[in-house]
Amino acid sequence: MFTSEKGAVEEWLSEFKTLPETSLSNYATNLKDKSSLVSSLYKVIQEPQSELLEPVCHQLFEFYRSGEEQLLRFTLQFLPELIWCYLAVSASRNVHSSGCIEALLLGVYNLEIVDKQGHSKVLSFTIPSLSKPSVYHEPSSIGSMALTESALSQHGLSKVVYSGPHPQREMLTAQNRFEVLTFLLLCYNAALTYMPSVSLQSLCQICSRICVCGYPRQHVRKYKGISSRIPVSSGFMVQMLTGIYFAFYNGEWDLAQKALDDIIYRAQLELYPEPLLVANAIKASLPHGAMKSSKEGTRCIQVEITPTSSRISRNAVTSMSIRGHRWKRHEQPDNSNDTTELGILVIPEISVTNVAGERTGNGEKGRTLGEIDAQHIQGVQETATDPRTESKGLPEIRRQKSVRKMMEDGINSPGRVQF
C-alpha angle with apex 129: 124 to 130, nearest 5 degrees? Predict the structure, then answer.
C-alpha cells in the first residue's frame, strides 16, 4: 500500500470524527464520488495484517448504523470483499486476524434482523402464479391451461414464503456461519441497483474464488493465495447467483460468465440441486453474444415484454358464438345503388303473414305477389345484363320500383310484408 493511499484513508478516518450532524447528508452525497478512496479501502481490507483494518471496520459500522441511506450503501459495497476475507482467514485457521471483520459482519447482521423499534423482522415473498401475467411472461403464450376442479379451487390463492425471525448472534461459528453470511448476501442483493461497478467486479471474483479454491480448477484460473477448500451452503450459492445474474446485464459480462461456470462446477461436485437449477436456468436464458451494456445510468435486468393486446380465445366455442357467426353469414349490405350499376341484384327473403301472425294460404293474393315479383326481377335482370341498353334501362327500373311500391301498399291492409 502506497503512502498516498494510506494518507487518504487516515484523512477519511479523522474527517468523519469531527463532522457535525447537520453536514452528514452532504458528506454522504460527496463520499460516493471519491473513487480513489474506495480503491484504497479495498486494499486495506485485502491485507488482514494492516494496522488500518480495525479502524476502517469500526468506521464502516458507524456508517451503517448512522441511519443515513447513502452511508449504509457505502458500507454494503464492501460486503463481498469482507465475506471473502473472512472465509479465507477461517479456512487458513488464523481466526485471530479476522476479529474486526467478524465483528463488522455480526454488527450488520444484528442491525438488519430488527426494525427501528427493535422488533424482529419477518421477510415475505409471494411466489408468482403462471396463470397471472407478469413482466416475465403472459399466460396466453404458455398455452391453454386446463381448468380442473383442483385448479378452480385454488384460483386466486397465492403462496407466500416467509424468512425469519432470525436470532441474534454474538459470534460466528461453523454451525451458524453460512446462516449469517447468506442473510448478509440477501441484504446486499436487495441494494444491487445502487452498487458501483467495482463492487460488482468484486462479487464475481470472490464467487469464483470461493467455488474453486482447493479444487483442480484453481490451477486453471491461476488463483494464488490459499489452497484449502472453503465449505459453502446451498442457500449461500443461490444468493451468489442472484448477484451474478444482475452483473451479466450491467457491464460485467466476462467476469459474470466465469463466475457462473465456477458455481456450476462447484454445485456439481457438491450435488446441490438448488444452485444447479438456478445456474442452468440463468445459463439457458442468456443471449448468444455478450451484452454491450453501458456501465453508466440506470441498472436493471433486461427482459423482453410482449405487447399487450386484446386476444380472443379460439378454443371458447359457445352456442351464442355459433349463432352470431350464422347471422353474420346471412347479413348482406344495403348497397342498392351500387348493385344496380353493376347489374347485381340482391333478392331479399319475403314472408307474408296476416295480422294474427298466421301465414296465408296459396290464394290469389299469394299468386299475384309471386307473379308481379317474378316479372319485376326478370325486368331488372334483363335491363342490367344488356350493356347496350343501359341508358334505356334506368327508366324501366324506376317503373318497376313504383310497381313494387304500389304492390306493397295494396298488401299492407290485410297483412304485412317483411324483408
Answer: 150
Burial of 207 (0-12, 13-18, 19+ CB in 10 A): buried
Contact 274, 238 (CB under 8 A): yes
Q: In DSSP terms, which residues pair with 353 in a beta bridge?
A: 359, 416
* 378 contact partners, CB below 8 Å, separation of at least 6: none
Tell me the per-residue pLDDT of 91-126, one tens digit each, with 9 for 90 and over: 877 666 678 899 999 999 999 988 888 888 888 877
Closest CA to 200 of 237, 233, 245: 245
Print the SS3 string covering the chain: CCHHHHHHHHHHHHHHHCCCHHHHHHHHHHHCCCHHHHHHHHHHHCCCCCCCHHHHHHHHHHHHCCCCHHHHHHHHCCHHHHHHHHHHHHHCCCHHHHHHHHHHHHHHHHHHCECCCCCECCEEEEECCCCCCCCCCCHHHHCCCCCCHHHHHCCCCCEEEEECCCCCCCCCCCCCHHHHHHHHHHHHHHCHHHCCHHHHHHHHHHHHHHHHCCCCHHHHHCCCCCCCCCCCCHHHHHHHHHHHHHHHCCCCHHHHHHHHHHHHHHHHHHCCHHHHHHHHHHHHHCCCCCCCCCCCCCCCCCCCCCCCCCCCCCCCCCHHHHHHHHHHHHCCCCCHHHHHHHCCCCCCCCEEEECCCCECCCCHHHHHHHHHHHHHHHHHHHHHHCHHHHHHHHHHHHHHHHHHHHHHHHHCCCEEEEC
- The whole-angstrom separation of Cα 263 and Cα 282 is 12
Amino acid identity, position 189: N
The CA-based diameter of the chain, rounded to the nearest angstrom, is 123
Q: What is the pTM of this model?
A: 0.65
Strand partners, 163: 123
160 φ/ψ angles, rounded to the nearest 5 degrees: -115, 130
What's residue 408's pLDDT? 61
- Identify the CA nearest to 138 among candidates 148, 150, 130: 130
pLDDT along the chain (419 residues), means of 10: 80 85 84 87 88 91 89 93 91 73 92 86 77 68 55 62 84 89 94 93 94 86 82 94 93 92 94 94 81 49 52 54 57 49 47 46 47 50 47 54 61 47
- Contacts of residue 270, defined as CB under 8 A and 6 or more positions apart, other chains included, come to 232, 234
Q: Are 209 and 231 in contact (CB under 8 A)?
A: no
Q: What pLDDT digit, counting tens, does each position of 57-67 carry?
A: 999 999 998 88
